[in-house]
Design a protein that fits this description.
Strand order of the largest sheet of chain A: 4-3-2-1-9-8
CATH topology of the domain at 2-438 in chain B: Cytochrome Bc1 Complex, Chain C
Shape of chain B: elongated
Oligomer: heterodimer
CATH class of the largest domain in chain A: Mainly Beta
Number of strands of chain A: 9
Shape of chain A: elongated
Radius of gyration of chain A: 26 Å
Largest sheet of chain A: 6 strands, antiparallel
Radius of gyration of chain B: 36 Å
Number of helices of chain A: 1
Largest interface: A-B, 28 and 37 residues
Bound molecules: protoporphyrin IX containing FE, FE2/S2 (inorganic) cluster
Strand content of chain B: under 5%
Distance between the termini of chain A: 60 Å
CATH architecture of the largest domain in chain A: 3-layer Sandwich
């Protein structure tokens, strides 16, 4: 074999073997790095809301906050009873089901929305001053730009048939900075 | 197009001349296989950096998180087992390669002048690699790392004058804990690796200055010697395979290791020898092939040589069989990869600590220097040897050179042989079977130790099994501390076993039961049973046996409970009457009664289940038999949940609690709630006949109130302390509910 040919052959071998090695190591490495794709958001089941008694919420348009607890898995840790979310509950009429339930998570970039000093006037998000009315709609007025891309995220709810005090909510986290409500996966 | 781009880059960076400087190293005498070892070491180090950084991506140093995060890598993350396995076996590979590299260097005489600095840098590199191995071994924060590493830090502490201080600084206090981990972690990933890189760069720069050390006759191994070399390579390969198989290495690993040399042999026909050659590509090719062989060995070790623990029945995702990708990605669950021992727990009694195998020789050395001589084994010999190694190049000056070369070989070979011998002796000491050649082993101590190893293995298996169901916030250590399966029998023995027996049964594999009367070393009799045997309590068999002979020591024979004994006497008397009246008819009635007793036992045994899970037909028939006067008339003394047809609505069955109150209630008999009440308020079950103390928590807020209320009601029942958690552990173990007891700690603040 001529020297040049031999050297070319060896270089070819080196690159070939190197590629095989890169693949054998690369596939597991990439799989490992993108492993969090398996970790699913908690399923949006109907869960009881604690911290409020429905029959005591009588005043219209005065938001009350409730919490939702459940098992939460954080990588290896199992929290048997953790707060997985908070909701604002607002009465909108006299009937038992005349309620509005919103997540406290701001649709803009996810801060938690607070109720105004004068509760009946609605909500304000402390981060970038997103303002909402008691029905969850964005405040629109001249000279003020609302950073929120959509109204507050309302949630599906129900009342425990055996306990008129117990509110049940299908709690879902929605993606921020979208015009539509898109559940997080 | 690309050419132009690279030209542009080159004009600005000069990368080509840098590349040439790197690759066009001049190798006089041509490329050789024997020069590959240094490159292999560098290769494995880079692999360690890559896998190590990947581990850092998911690892969390901290007393309550370290083990859990490693568990998560090993068992839950895609290919985490492979990444961790490569890192684990990579460290062992590096240590082995170090030995080979060192041996090759002294054989070539490459440590002699003018290459002293190279040798010294190499020794420092060796120290750093051993330091990485030592600090890394602790990081999983499992029992073996935790207890073995204490030995190392205690050695540090044994240094006269400054040892105690140094130990305290390194450990971050007088005990192992959070800062031990953060310190070791920082050393392992932030200090030692950069130090290693620095030393490695210097090592290579100095090496380039003097070039590779060629064998004295550098032109010989041309065409003439080729067959000899090939035969030699094949023999070495065969020898390695043989030795590996002999000591029990997996065949794939053995063949890969031996195959490396066979490959060297075959390659001699294809790769021609040049007299003068550059590193690129001749030597680079050989280096790469050798590195890939090493990588293959590491892979086979991870896959076939691993010693992980299996997790039973991985939860099926949507009821589907996992596909090939999932099975490979999660192979850690099948037991592949590196071992993870049970979470570190300072409460453990007598953990059999052993270092990683490549430190066995140091470990063994300590056994020969007891008491005041300890420093000889920990300090003087190891440091003496290091000093000798440091001095080796100095024996190569002037006309000493020949002697220096020879002396170097002698020192390193005898060092490696002593290391091997000490390792063998350490293994022999721990071996249950006596080893040949009078190496030792087979002693009583070794057997005792082996039991400890087995117990540790049971705990390790159990820990990962429990972890797969979720780890409490307080950390993985709680898994075993609150595991009914392993802790339950111990607590039972301590609290209940004073009076109750608990015979073993076939499905309680790790549990052997107790000897009836155990004589302690001081001659006292520890245990005299005074109550029933609670093994399989409330099972059909247990109840049936009780009905047969309540006076048996297995049941109420040892107690002062007479109700059932009297009941059985009456049954026997009645039977004698029947037989006297009419033998035929009497036999029939007895047989019928026996049958009903079977039925009652079966019915009573299902009372521990929730109503919905009980066999409804059995409920109906059991209720009838329970109430029937001719079959023992249980209801005269006991209350039960009776399942009867409604009087108003035909065909509609309903539950009703009814019966006498002279004997214990059968409502939920044998269920956890039933046992809980029995343990906390036995007098509620057996009234004045009761002789069992009440086991209740006696500290924590509210406990004193409960104690006074209890004492006001049952003044004759003494109270024995038993915490809520311990009680639940015992109850879960008895009822074969092996879930970890989460939460329920006593409420308290920091101690005042
Ligand atoms: C050359 C050197 C190295 C050696 C000899 C070494 C050795 C070790 C050892 C023996 C362990 C315990 C592994 C086990 O039992 O599973 C370990 C763990 C670890 N190493 Fe290294 N290591 C090296 C380099 C590195 C580097 C460069 C990094 C990161 C930059 C790193 C990061 C880690 C981490 C995060 C762990 C803990 C995770 C685990 O144990 O699974 N290592 N190392
Ligand atoms: S996050 Fe609420 S306004 Fe920006």
């Amino acid at each position: 074999m001529a020297d040049e040919e031999r050297r070319t052959f060896l270089k070819l071998c080196i690159h070939g073997l190197g590629a095989v090695f890169a693949a054998v190591l690369g596939v597991p490495v990439v799989s490992y790095l993108i492993d969090p794709r398996h970790r699913q958001a908690a399923a949006g089941e109907m869960r009881p809301v604690s911290g409020i008694r429905l029959t005591e919420i009588t005043e219209l348009n005065r938001p009350v906050q409730g919490v939702i607890r459940d098992v939460r898995r954080d990588a290896w840790t199992l929290h048997p009873n953790d707060v997985i979310g908070r909701v604002w509950v607002v009465r909108s009429g006299p009937g038992p089901r005349d309620l509005r339930v919103f997540t406290t998570v701001c649709p803009h970039l996810g801060c938690s929305i607070n109720v105004n000093a004068e509760p009946t006037s609605g909500f304000t998000c402390p981060c970038h001053n997103g303002q909402f009315l008691c029905d969850g709609n964005r405040v629109r007025r001249d000279g003020y730009t609302n950073p929120a891309p959509r109204d507050m995220d309302s949630l599906e709810f129900d009342i425990d048939p055996e306990n008129p005090d117990q509110l049940l909510v299908r709690y879902v986290n929605f993606k921020q900075a979208e015009n539509e409500k898109i559940p997080r996966t | 197009m690309f050419r132009k781009l690279f030209d542009w880059i080159d004009r600005r960076t000069g990368y080509r001349s840098f590349k040439d400087a790197m690759l066009l190293e001049h190798i006089s005498g041509g490329a050789r296989w024997r020069y590959v070892w240094g490159s292999c070491l560098a290769f494995v180090f880079i692999l360690q950096v890559v896998t190590g950084i990947l581990l850092m991506w998911s690892y969390s140093p901290g007393d309550s998180t370290a083990w859990s995060s490693v568990y998560f890598i090993q068992y839950e993350m895609d290919f985490g087992w492979l990444i961790r396995g490569l890192h684990h076996f990579g460290s062992q590979t590096m240590v082995v390669l170090l030995a080979v590299h060192m041996l090759q260097v002294v054989i070539a005489g490459a440590h002699l002048p003018p290459r002293e600095f190279n040798w010294w840098l190499g020794l420092l590199l060796m120290g750093v690699v051993l330091g990485l191995s030592l600090t890394g071994y602790l990081l999983p924060w499992d029992q073996k790392g935790y207890f073995a590493t204490q030995v190392a830090t205690n050695i540090l502490g044994s240094i006269p004058a400054i040892g105690t201080f140094l130990q305290k600084i390194l450990v971050g206090g007088s005990n192992y804990g959070n800062h031990t981990l953060t310190h070791f972690y920082t050393l392992h990933v932030g200090i030692l690796p950069p130090l290693l890189v620095l030393l490695l760069v210097l090592h290579l720069v100095v090496f380039r200055r003097h070039g590779i050390t060629t064998p004295p006759v550098s032109h010989g191994e041309g065409v003439l010697n080729r067959p000899v070399a090939v035969v030699r390579d094949f023999l070495i390969g065969g020898l390695i395979v043989g030795v590996c198989l002999f000591v029990g290495v997996h065949i794939v690993t053995a063949l890969t290791m031996g195959g490396m040399f066979w490959f060297f042999g075959i390659s001699r026909f294809f790769i021609e020898k040049r007299e003068v050659e550059y590193f690129w590509p001749g030597q680079a090719f050989r280096d790469l092939v050798a590195c890939l062989f090493i990588f293959a060995i590491m892979l086979t070790l991870v896959i076939w040589g691993g010693h992980g623990n299996k997790i039973d029945a991985p939860p099926a995702v949507d009821g589907q069989e996992p596909g090939l990708y999932d099975r490979m990605a999660k192979a850690g669950r099948a037991g592949l990869g590196a071992n993870l021992d049970a979470p570190a727990d300072p409460e453990t009694e007598n953990y059999p600590a052993r270092p990683e195998w490549y430190f066995f020789f140091l470990f063994q050395l300590l056994k020969y220097f007891p008491g005041d001589d300890i420093l000889i084994g920990t300090l003087f010999i190891p440091n003496g040897v290091m000093l000798l190694l440091f001095l080796l190049p100095l024996f190569g000056y002037g006309n000493m050179r020949k002697f220096g070369h020879f002396f170097g070989i002698v020192v390193v070979v005898s060092l490696l042989m002593s290391v091997g011998m000490l390792t063998l002796l350490a293994l022999a000491d721990d071996s249950v079977k006596p080893l040949p050649l009078g190496l030792g082993g087979g002693t009583e101590n070794a057997k005792h130790l082996h039991e400890k190893f087995e117990e540790a293995a049971v705990h390790a298996k159990r820990a990962v099994q429990l972890a797969s169901q979720g780890i409490p916030e307080s950390g993985a250590r709680e898994l075993l501390r609150k595991d009914p399966y392993t802790k339950g029998p111990k607590l039972f023995e301590m609290h209940c076993g004073v009076c109750h027996k608990f015979s073993s049964s076939p499905d309680r594999l790790d549990y052997k039961g107790w000897v009836e009367k155990e004589v302690t070393p001081t001659g006292q009799i520890k245990r005299v049973f005074k109550a029933s045997d609670l093994s399989d309590f409330a099972s059909q068999k247990w109840i049936r046996g009780l009905l047969e002979n309540p006076g048996d020591p297995k049941y109420f024979g040892l107690t002062k409970l007479d109700g059932m004994k009297k009941w059985r006497e009456k049954v026997n008397e009645a039977r004698a009457e029947w037989l006297k009246d009419n033998a035929e008819e009497g036999k029939r009635r007895i047989a019928e009664q026996e049958e009903k007793f079977d039925l009652i036992a079966k019915w009573l045994a299902q009372q521990k289940l929730p109503r919905a899970e009980r066999d409804k037909q059995l409920e109906i028939e059991g209720t009838k038999a329970f109430e029937h006067k001719g079959f023992g008339y249980c209801r005269s003394c006991h209350t039960a949940e009776l399942y009867k047809e409604s009087k108003k609505e035909k065909g509609k069955f309903d539950y009703e609690e009814d019966g006498g109150s002279d004997g214990p209630s059968f409502v939920g008999y044998g269920a956890q709630e039933w046992i809980r009440l029995m343990v906390m308020s036995p007098a509620l079950r057996y009234e004045r006949e009761n002789h069992m103390p009440a086991f209740r928590p006696i500290d924590g807020p509210g406990a004193e109130t409960l104690r006074q209320e209890f004492q006001a009601k049952f003044e004759n029942t003494p109270i024995m302390p038993l915490s809520d958690i311990d009680r639940e552990l015992i109850i879960r173990w008895m009822t074969r509910d092996y879930r970890v007891v989460f939460g329920g700690q006593t409420i308290s603040g920091a101690p005042k």
